[in-house]
Structures are given as C-alpha cells and as structure tokens.
Task: structure prediction
Amino acid sequence: MNAVLDLFAGPGGWSEGLRLLGLRDVGIEIDPAVCSTRRTAGHTTIRANVAAYPTRPLRGKVTGQIGSPPCQPYSAAGLRAGNTDLPLCHQALDDLARGNDTRAAIREACSDPRSLLVVEPLRYALDLRPEWIALEEVPAVLPLFEHTARLLANTGYSTWTGTLNAADFGLAQTRRRAFLMASRTRPALPPEPTHAKGGTLADLFGDGLPPWRTMLDVLGCPPGTVHTRGNHTTGGSRFPTTGPSWAITGRARSWLLKVGNRSFATRRRIDQPAPTLLFGNARKDVTWIDVDGTPVRRLDVTEAAILQGFPADYPWAGSRTKQFQQIGNAVPPPLATAVLGALVPAALEVGA
Result:
C-alpha cells in the first residue's frame, strides 16, 4: 500500500486537486458532516481525531502526506488566540524533533487547544517518513511552517515555504495562503503561476500569462433579476440576469460582492476576482450589493463553491451554515493541483 495521507482532510479540496492529477488520498477528518461530504464525493475517509490517531499502523504505507490544520485560532476572521500560543507551538515542534512528545502538557497551557494542531503534521512526518509533504494554512502560520521546514530539512528533506495567491493559479479569488512543500526525492520548488494580474506579454522565454479570472468568468451573471427602470418601483420590465437581459440593461454587471458587515468591508466588482471568502459564523455578511451599496441578496452555496474552485454540483452535506464553513475552510482544488503537480513524481508522470 502506497497511500497519500490527508490530515484534517476537510470536504475534499486536496482530494479534488489530487483527482485532477489522476491520484487519490485517504483522509482523516473528525467532523461528521464533513465526512459525509467527502464520502459522497467519492473520497476515502477515516472519521477520527488526527491528534489522537496512532501512527504506528501506518508505517511503511504512506508515500505522501498533505494537510490543512484548522485555521480558526490564527484566522483574521477569528479571535487569533493562536498568535498568543505561537511560542508554545514552537516549543512543541522542537520537542517532537527531539523525540519528546509534550503535546498533552502544552495543550493545557494553550489559550485555544486547537492552536497545537498545527504541529501534528510534523509528528506524522517524523514517524512515517513520507516521500513528500504538502501543507496549507492561513498566512499567520508561516513562521510555524518555516520552523517545521527547518526540522524536516535536518532529516533529509528539501523544503520550500511561502505564500501563494490562488488567483495566480486560475481561481477567481485573491486568496492568499501559506504553504510548506517538502520532498526526500527531488527539490521542493513552488509551482509556476498560470495567471497574472493584468496578464503578461509573451517574450523570448515563453508565452505570456492570461489575466486573473473574474467572478463574471466563472459565474456568468449571478441568478436574480434586474429592473430596466433602475430603482423605480413601477413601470419598466424585469429580466433574468442569467439570460439575454444583459443586452437590455448592464445593471447586473455593476454588482459587487461584499465580504463583511463593517464600513471598511471588502468590495469587489463582478468583473474582478472575489476577495478571500470568509464564512465561519458570518455567512450573512457575504452579500451581492448594487453599485449604490444596496443589498441584492446573499451569496449562495453553489456560487461560493465555484468561487472556491469546486464543481457546481459538489455534494455538500450538513446545514447551510456548515456547508459554507466547509467551502471557506477548504483548499481550492486548482491551487492544490498546482502545488501537488510541482511536488509529486506520479503527478508529473500523469501530466507528461
């Protein structure tokens, strides 16, 4: 058995990225609704607590390791208790590298026990010695990834850490995330962008890059109706925004996506990439608004999934709030494919 082990597997962002490369993973995930999403989507899943799962039965069976530890303690959308716990997480990493598992004691000292989950990939890597590793988290975790990379380098891995913008890899969203890539068999190098802001021109060294994709590119005109008399309540006609009404009124093209409920909330025109989609408990704050700031309607699940790089018919399980949380926490599959395609030997052969 040569498995790809997916820690904190989530609904299948990494899994879908692997699937696009002709590969599969086995995911460990604790949330029942998320497990249901994965299984319905055809991704092998073990429902278990990553921090409590034993590594011994997996030794000699894992070729690759991927993972996205829970980001809530470090996310800009949360309370950022993880920032307070950073020194404790650094200590736990050093202790694990010395063969001293102090997780239980350190977890008790953390402001948020979830903060320490970011050290779990190192525990698995040191025990299982996979050929390659790919990890993803919010940018605030980059110092911990850099620390993890140094410890992995001491055991023979080539490593790279840095921040990638998903818009540079074909997603219609300017989502920035920290990554750690490591390999025992080849240099670990970041993927080459496939898109660029504004696009680039061809030169002697190759073709230029197309511009970032926009919400309009991937969604078309958002479902709903527009009125040919603007804000007037009488007269005029209503047309579906998914049909030829664009030829009659351009108002739907002026819609913006607003993320947040404060005066400085991020707003993006529909002919731009979406900002980073943050849901958590704030699903009602991701809203389509008109050019004058008037709310039109909330972003729906299908739109959110497409903007995150999932198929429109992906089988999300759980309540609507749970579905939005899964989408917002997932690795965008196009970004996962780019990272894995640059790292995994079998992926390189599939793409040849």
Notes: Residues 225-249 have pLDDT under 50 and may be disordered. The chain has two domains: 3-192+331-351, 215-326.
